[in-house]
């Protein structure tokens, strides 16, 4: 439902606006959708945006780009939808790594282990590290998110022909799916593309533009590829105050598969998912802190609260049916403190009596809603 305090986003011409309203109402009736729901309003705005592109005089090329992007995203949403309840890890690494290389073996072994814990694996569907992770996970537990390139890449044998293989025309739509669908990211040694994915993931988390999740840089046993990278980040980015010292908590570097697996499982030991509702950040958890534990948390994490205190809360109406029955740890979050937020989540995970989330309990994972206050969103 549209916010009554805001000017309605509309097509401008009254006759067209009436036709759009009628179309949405008919669509809602056909698909048994509440015409006053938030979903119906988003459908209306999608139609309005299309018509406003015509008003703006968008070129055929621009219309084609948007049309293709929408089709790609629609198809990807449909492919992932049946598996929404399962946690997924995106694995990145070089497409050039040969099968006899320790990095290849490490990726294969990691994927084997994480799938045993009920997770699924997403890769770029190519060879090298991608093929290793895909092979370790197996076809049933794999998604392939391929990109069409003039010189590469054919899908690896594990995922080739599977309904969970998606071929993208555009890098940006492919990246949206990685961000939206992954509950964790593990990076193996790779080239420009691997570093791009790693830094982009950290940037999105650091800036609050995606939900916080575990990011692991996994070397082969005894390897130094990511250790050297970590030293560079510490000696150049952190030392020159280009990032905060707390930002180093946003990732883990290891050469041990067991450590990497436990980093993922431990992150969801108690923590479930996050959601902004206006200015309040809600951390959904299985086990809420006791009053005494909450007092200690407030003492230790007062610097990340912009106003008030960290509190235990029930779900809010704006959350709809997400994670019903799970308590929330709520706060007005100082959004520059994502590293400290990760440390808060680690503290909450320590409170859980035992690892708990079953494979079917993954929350709806999405780009943070409410990152831009509603009154600042453009009506144009």
CATH topology descriptor of the largest domain: Rossmann fold
Counting DSSP E segments of at least 2 residues, the number of strands comes to: 11
Succession of helices and strands:
HHHEHEHEEHEHEHEHEEHEEH
Main β sheet profile: 7 strands, parallel
Number of helical segments?
11
* The top level CATH class name of the largest domain: Alpha Beta
Query: Could you say how many structural domains there are in total?
Result: 3
The low-confidence parts are 364-380
Radius of gyration: 22 Å
Strand order of the largest sheet: 4-3-2-1-5-6-7
> What gap, in angstroms, lies between the N and C termini?
18 Å
Architecture of the largest domain in CATH?
A: 3-Layer(aba) Sandwich
What form results from the Cα inertia axes?
globular
Strand content: 15-25%
Structural class: alpha/beta
Bin the helical content: 40-55%
């Amino acid at each position: 439902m549209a916010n009554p305090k805001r000017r309605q986003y509309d097509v401008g011409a009254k006759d067209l606006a009436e036709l759009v309203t009628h179309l949405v109402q008919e669509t809602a009736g056909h698909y048994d959708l509440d015409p006053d729901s938030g979903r119906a309003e988003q459908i209306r705005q999608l139609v309005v945006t299309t018509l406003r592109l015509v008003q703006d005089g968008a070129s055929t090329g621009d219309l084609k780009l948007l049309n293709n992007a929408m089709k790609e995203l629609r198809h990807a949403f449909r492919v992932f939808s049946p598996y929404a309840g399962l946690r997924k890890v995106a694995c990145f690494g070089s497409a050039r790594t040969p099968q006899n290389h320790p990095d290849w073996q490490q990726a294969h072994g990691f994927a084997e282990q994480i799938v045993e814990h009920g997770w699924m694996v997403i890769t770029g569907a190519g060879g090298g590290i991608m093929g290793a992770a895909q092979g370790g996970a197996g076809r049933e537990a794999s998604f392939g998110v391929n990109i069409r390139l003039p010189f590469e890449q054919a899908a690896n044998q594990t995922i080739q022909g599977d309904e969970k293989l998606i071929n993208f025309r555009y890098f940006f739509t492919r990246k949206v799916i990685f961000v939206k669908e992954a509950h964790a990211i593990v990076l193996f040694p790779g080239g420009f593309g691997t570093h791009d994915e790693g830094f982009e993931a950290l940037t999105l988390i650091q800036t609050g533009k995606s939900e916080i999740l575990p990011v692991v840089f996994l070397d082969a046993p005894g390897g130094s590829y990511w250790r050297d990278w970590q030293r560079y980040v510490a000696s150049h980015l952190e030392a020159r105050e280009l990032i905060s010292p707390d930002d180093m908590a946003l990732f883990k570097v290891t050469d041990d598969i067991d450590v990497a697996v436990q980093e993922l499982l431990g992150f969801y030991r108690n923590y479930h998912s996050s959601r902004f509702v206006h200015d309040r950040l809600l951390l959904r958890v299985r086990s809420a802190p006791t009053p005494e534990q909450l007092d200690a948390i407030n003492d230790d994490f007062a610097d990340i609260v912009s106003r008030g205190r960290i509190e235990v809360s029930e779900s809010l109406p704006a959350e709809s049916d997400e994670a019903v029955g799970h308590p929330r740890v709520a706060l007005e979050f100082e959004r520059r403190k994502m590293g400290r937020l990760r440390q808060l989540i680690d503290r909450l995970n320590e409170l859980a009596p035992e690892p708990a989330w079953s494979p079917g309990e993954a929350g709806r994972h999405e780009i943070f809603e409410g990152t831009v206050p509603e009154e600042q969103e453009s009506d144009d």
